[in-house]
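Exam revision sheet. Question 4 asks you to relate a sequence to its structure. Input first:
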Amino acid sequence: MTTRSTDELPAPLTVAETPLNVRLARLRKEGRFGEAAELARTGLPDSPPAGVPAAVHLEAGLSLAAVSDYPAACAHLHLAAADPVQAPGALAKLSEIAWVRHDHVRGREYALEGLGLDPSNRGCRIQLRRNERAETTANAVGDTSGMLAHAAFHADPHGNAGDLGLVDSVRRGFDLEYEPQPRAGLAKRALKKPQSFPRWWDVHVHQLFDEQRLAQVNAGDGLVLGGGGLFLPDTAPNGNSGWQWNVTDEMLRRIRVPLVVWAVGYNTFQGQGFHGDRFAGSLRTLVEKASFVGLRNSGSIERVREMLPAELAAKVRWQPCPTTVTAHLGGPAWETPGDLGESGPVLLNCAYDRSERRFGEGYARFLEGIRDWVLATRHRAEVHYAAHCVDDENLVVDLRREHGLTLPVIPMYNMTVAQIHTTYRRAALVVGMRGHAGMIPFGCGTPIVSLVSHPKLTYFLADIERPQWGVAVDEPALAERLGEVSGQILDDRAAVVADIRQLQQRLFDVTLENLAALPEPLRVVPRG
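Answer key, structure tokens:
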């Protein structure tokens, strides 16, 4: 094999020579959505649209959708869909945009067309389920008088188990003293069971908050926004707010019922930020309009207050994530009292969204550290893998492929909320990288160790004054450090469980204080 000298190597491409679709993709990956959209509008070659490569049309469509220029985005995506290679991806995005705009019939048609071309296309499968489910749900809402709207990331079936548990915990907190009542005009004897007259209806934050949703919200008793890390620019980018709720300032100002921001987090990774000023403007409008603003950790409070004038910053308060007080909120998983995890397995969880931000160049070293920790821990307890979503299982695949190590997998994305809680209650310890792979087991009374790849895990541990329960993923001696922390907890597990109960009580006291401070009819005042 011959090697080429440095003089023979081609010179790197200049910015102007880099293909347009590559430049657009880079800008989007960096979160510079406004710049990508402007380049999509001005940077296309002077040729008929049909002469532009389909890959360029696809990236232009994705870039324009990220700033909510949906008509222009759809035009480019339709051109991309004329190419057999790009068509499934383009049709998946067209289906998603239709879902965002509540056009579920058309969204379903796009998804089915994409699946006809590529039955294995994951994006089309997801969007087909989303549109079919959203159409059924929207038709079932009906009269919203006497109901509460819940704006949140409502997980898809088989979606993130943490999001599923979060929505349930938020509602249980507000329902602590709730007694279902018949709708206006119905006799009391018509009330047969609580499910007959549901109190909540869903507003998915990634969908456009339009005139119909506004009218439904204003016909009800209030709007609860949260919890979760909604202050994040890139999970579902849009140009209306710059963060996850796809709402314009005008629509926010026209909400007439009490708006409560509940346990929301500022969720950027280390080194990540918001480009442009749209988020700052939307945040100010949100805080001005809200009756209560509660953020889930002190780190989020500090970051948000920095972006607000003094009179608005003073409105921002601490509201712990309700998953951290799950044991106080009730539910089927709590019919059996006591500590169920004394002889249970150790559960491990890792996250793979934005892997480059979580691991940088150190993933191979991290994987070796986890391998060594698992092998050492197995001498005292079984180690199982708790997957909150399908992609979490990448760790299990990588451990088996790279190191020949096999872990049994618990697919929590297939579980009900009660099953999620029961699984965590029966664990001796949970070592988790996802935020809710720490907060939910903590709320269930189970000891935790956080694998820190995101600031939010550090924020939570700081708020409960237990920073020693965190280990950074880039720790040079990961296996040794993780083994030391987890070993100490397992050695003194009964004391740690008792400590968690006391910490939970403090968080629950804050939650009750905040619930009592809400405006009617959202105020919750415990009896006795």
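Marking note for examiners. Residues 493-516 form the longest helix (24 residues).
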